[in-house]
Design goal:
- By secondary structure, the chain is α/β, with parallel strands linked by helices.
- The chain folds into 2 domains: 244 residues, Rossmann fold; 54 residues, no CATH class.
- It is built from 12 helices and 9 strands.
- Strand 2 and strand 3 form a beta hairpin.
- The N and C termini lie far apart (52 Å).
Length: 311
């Protein structure tokens, strides 16, 4: 383990910045003086490839702006954080009492990083998790039906946290956001739920697997993280905010291609009318401005809120 100074300035607060270099990972670290909260982040797949080795850790700036200390785990390949040096590091830090020095520890990540946030939550003494479209495992034995993530499936999927469901047993709440109309993501979440009653599902339909980008475009990613960090998260408020996806044309273009919509002229008409209502034209047909969207229910376009997943 090598400790290197990070010459990027600590933003508007006193503290220290440094990078902990492991064999397979770099931990971009910002420790703010008197920070009550620590957030450990895990970046999504391919970020190392697109941004290069001199990138900042995932979420480090805005989490710092929230007054949080941050440890941002950065990888060198899409290895799903399966290399043993990362767990060894967290065990060492936990034994030293480092994580106990904060009032609250949170883990946070998306997709591959979502796996990391869940798998290592107990290892960093986390109280709460935000995991966006995560995988429970890429083990052929545990998930033979998973056909995605070929590079990740090449990793060693035996031993500790081969199933991320085993990694967050002690947290008070694990918020898992995903699209309930992606069958493989749904199956992964089902694996995560086994033995974890503290898992809270946050369902955002018809946005696909790139949920962090959608949440940023809806301007709800930062507010969701902030609400969880401060203990003010409300599922009701989350689902209300998630309706902002209706203001994005791409949402309607994706919705109109869903099999249930394509197979039904009635549903197609409903989607086109709703799109018109929100200011988007998806076909040559136009509707009079005075016409209101129909009241007929369309399952795939409604918000899957708590207790109302099929409304």
């Amino acid at each position: 383990m090598t400790l290197m100074k990070n010459h990027a300035a600590v933003r508007e607060a006193s503290g220290s910045c440094f990078i902990i270099q492991l064999q397979n990972y770099a931990i971009d670290t910002v420790l703010l003086d008197n920070a009550a909260n620590l957030v450990v982040t895990f970046e999504p797949m391919d970020r190392w490839k697109t941004l290069g080795p001199h990138r900042k850790g995932w979420g480090i700036d805005f989490l710092q702006d929230l007054g949080c200390s941050v440890m941002a785990v950065m990888c060198q390949q899409n290895d799903w954080y399966r290399k043993p040096d990362l767990l060894d590091f967290f065990i060492q830090m936990n034994k030293s009492g480092f994580f106990h020095g904060f009032e609250q520890v949170m883990t946070y990540g998306g997709s591959m990083g979502g796996y990391g946030a869940l798998a290592y939550a107990d290892a960093v003494n986390a109280d709460v998790v935000l995991s966006i479209n995560p995988q429970a495992t890429l083990s052929e034995r545990l998930a033979p039906w998973e056909t995605r993530f070929s590079q990740g499936k090449k990793q060693h999927w035996e031993g500790p946290f081969a199933n991320a469901a085993d990694g967050f047993r002690k947290v008070s709440a694990a918020y898992v956001a995903y699209d309930p109309f992606l069958p493989l993501d749904v199956r992964q979440v089902k694996l995560l739920k086994i033995g974890n009653p503290q898992l809270v599902e946050l369902k955002i339909p018809v946005v696909g697997h790139h949920l962090p980008k959608w949440m940023m475009e809806m301007d709800i990613l930062k507010s969701t993280v902030q609400a969880i960090v401060t203990g003010q998260f409300s599922e009701k408020c989350f689902y209300q905010a998630a309706r902002k996806r209706r203001l994005i044309k791409r949402y309607w273009k994706m919705l109109v291609t869903k099999p249930r919509v394509l197979k039904s002229p009635l549903f197609t008409g409903i989607v086109l009318r709703y799109a018109e209502h929100y200011g988007f034209s998806l076909s040559g047909k136009t509707f009079k401005p005075s016409e209101s969207p129909p009241n007929a229910g369309l399952t795939v376009s409604r918000d899957a809120g708590p207790g109302n997943e099929r409304r």
